[in-house]
Specification:
By secondary structure, the protein is mostly helical. About 70% of the residues lie in helices and about 0% in strands.
């Protein structure tokens, strides 16, 4: 049975994919003081960023393996960003 994608206004749907959210978090960790420009690149305003962080945190609390994969992915993206900077 195919699964239907949740509607865009679904309270539990995230705006970012797993990889996009990991990339966002890596950029926030590396780009000290430039958070507004980072959020802007992901098309998130203040309300959306708080909602996104909240939804992902709730997912990670209920799915420890997902949280572990996320931490590993953030580390990969962070290393790439740091190496790119030199």
């Amino acid at each position: 049975m195919p699964f239907r994608r949740a509607p865009a206004d679904d309270q539990d749907s995230t705006a970012l994919t797993f990889d996009q959210y990991a990339s966002l978090c890596a950029e926030l960790a590396v780009e000290h003081g430039a958070h507004a420009s980072v959020y802007s690149r992901y098309n998130l305003d203040e309300e959306q960023q708080r909602r996104e962080h909240g939804l992902w945190k709730a997912r990670f609390r209920s799915d420890i393996p997902l949280a572990e994969r996320f931490d590993a992915q953030v580390a990969v993206f962070r290393r790439w960003l740091e190496n790119r900077r030199g």
